Amino acid sequence: MVKNRKSCEVPDATIHRLPLYLEKLKLLQAIGVEDVSSRQLAESLDIKASQLRHDFHYFGGFSRPGRPYQVAKLVPALEQIIGIAEPVPTAIIGAGHLGQALANYQNLDVQGFPVRGIFDTNPKLIGLEMRGQPVRDMDELEKVIKEEKIRIAILTVPSTQAQVVANRLVEAGIIGIFNFAPTDLKVPEGVAVRNERLAVGIMSLSFKVKCILQSQDEDITEV
Amino acid sequence: MVKNRKSCEVPDATIHRLPLYLEKLKLLQAIGVEDVSSRQLAESLDIKASQLRHDFHYFGGFSRPGRPYQVAKLVPALEQIIGIAEPVPTAIIGAGHLGQALANYQNLDVQGFPVRGIFDTNPKLIGLEMRGQPVRDMDELEKVIKEEKIRIAILTVPSTQAQVVANRLVEAGIIGIFNFAPTDLKVPEGVAVRNERLAVGIMSLSFKVKCILQSQDEDITEV
DNA sequence: AAGTAACGGTTAAATAATTAACACATAATG
DNA sequence: CATTATGTGTTAATTATTTAACCGTTACTT
């Protein structure tokens, strides 16, 4: 099956757009839209239609020439590609404020990532319930990961502990780490890490804000 | 001052690396490192030295040929560029789980974004204190933004309300919105929005996990 | 004091991503 | 039944980003 291997050689930029396509399509589906053209879908996402078709082209045809996409076919196709055709059991490591926020974030479930384990070392937190899931002691980590067949972990521990915990997760069979600690994790090949750096986000926003303020100043002095 | 205008015409990819440079440099500064070459710094960030020099080149010389960068000069230079030479007062709109998590996220202060206002409409939350800041009623939004000269807002309200609140923020003088709601905000020119889509993050991770699993399967069948 | 190794700035080349263009297919229309 | 409008898949052109190459400087070594 050459397709599979090929379908993994896709630019990151395209991968990041897949969830956006899916989200919009689900929205259309919810209001009863059956067909949608590349132009309509692209326009609603503020991108070019050719880019959307180009993105889809990595995965083979979703329609045939002359006919728009059928929402009912496209949604499961994208879910398959993204890997959420079946629910993906997920763990949250670190039940501090951020961990709690994510554990209570209903969308995680809806989007295909049911939380099947929440872990912490703090005795004050252990036993607390969030959306029906108790906060468990880290001692249970390996057992629960195995029992629940968890493959993805969301890491919300202090950055000092991130690497140690990550090692343990990898050892326990986790192959996808969504890392919220501002640390670069070292992981072996065959493990995917995605760093979510809030600081990067707000700083690049700050850069643009500074540029806006500067251009406003210039406009004034130019008058 | 042509430099200012030019310094805003910088690729997004470069902008996103600036915080990483700054973070690493601060780390070096903390352990007493005075000089660092482009190669050393790049290597520690797992990028090419030429890319780092190319990035810096957008903003003019930070050193002179033959001499490595001086950490003590580079740090404030980057802070200036990013726009955090002075602390940037920030507001959090929505004191739910995520808003609370961010309000309690000490790094925000440290990185130059002191929280000067937390807002919600829920009477049960109003009055609660987080890091010395009370949760305020939305009625006070405009007043506090003005008094505290807040320019950046972190939006953590339900997506149904995101656009309405965003409009109000813009009206009140906010020019940078860090949006955690899974909605595309429409804002006038002169306002910067950065969308932080957790679902996008975890889904692109899921895509890579699926690819890893597939390639493992193939390896087995190939043997 | 000359030679050498290391360095940043700068420009050019290579690579990747986006956008446009086009060929062909479909269904609706007169 | 031809014609037209709309549409995708696919390839080509354009644009953006990354990487490499080179030049002039600096400080160190012998």
Your description of this structure?
Two copies of one chain form a homodimer. Chain A starts with a helix and ends with a helix. The model of chain A is unreliable at 1-5 (pLDDT under 50). Helices cover 49% and strands 15% of the residues of chain A. Chain A folds into two domains: 2-82, Arc Repressor Mutant, subunit A, CATH 1.10.10.10; 90-200, Rossmann fold, CATH 3.40.50.720. In chain A, the strands form two sheets. Chain A has a seven-stranded mixed β-sheet, with helices on both faces. A two-stranded antiparallel ribbon of chain A has the order 1-2. The radius of gyration of chain A is 21 Å and the shape is globular. Chain A has ten helices and nine strands. In chain A, helix 9 links the parallel strand 7 and strand 8 (176-179). Chain A is of the alpha/beta class. Chain A has helices at residues 2-7, 12-30, 38-44, 49-57, 71-82, 97-103, 106-110, 141-147, 159-171, 198-222, and strands at 35-36, 69-70, 90-93, 115-120, 129-130, 133-137, 152-155, 176-179, 192-195. In chain A, helix 2 runs antiparallel to helix 5 and helix 3 (38-44) crosses helix 4. Chain B binds a DNA duplex (30 and 30 nucleotides) through helix 4.
List the keywords.
Rossmann fold, homodimer, alpha/beta, two-stranded antiparallel sheet, Arc Repressor Mutant, subunit A, DNA-binding, 223 residues
Brief write-up:
The structure is a homodimer of 223-residue chains. Chain A is globular.
Q: What oligomerization state is this entry in?
A: homodimer
Point out poorly predicted stretches of chain A.
1-5
| Reported CATH architecture of the largest domain in chain A | 3-Layer(aba) Sandwich
The fraction of residues assigned to DSSP E strands of chain A is: 5-15%
Question: Total number of β-strand segments of chain A?
Answer: 9
CATH topology of the largest domain in chain A: Rossmann fold
Structural class of chain A: alpha/beta
Determine the number of helices of chain A (DSSP H or I, runs of at least 4 residues): 10
Radius of gyration of chain A over all CA atoms, rounded: 21 Å
CATH C-level of the largest domain in chain A: Alpha Beta
String of helices and strands of chain A: HHEHHEHEHHEEEHEHEEH
What's the CATH superfamily of the largest domain in chain A, by name?
NAD(P)-binding Rossmann-like Domain
- End-to-end Cα distance of chain A, whole Å, is 65 Å
Largest β-sheet summary of chain A: 7 strands, mixed
Provide the helix percentage of chain A: 40-55%
Strand order of the largest sheet of chain A: 5-6-4-3-7-8-9
Average pLDDT of chain A: 93
Number of domains of chain A: 2
Largest interface, and how many residues on either side?
A: A-B, 69 and 68 residues
Label the overall shape of chain A.
globular
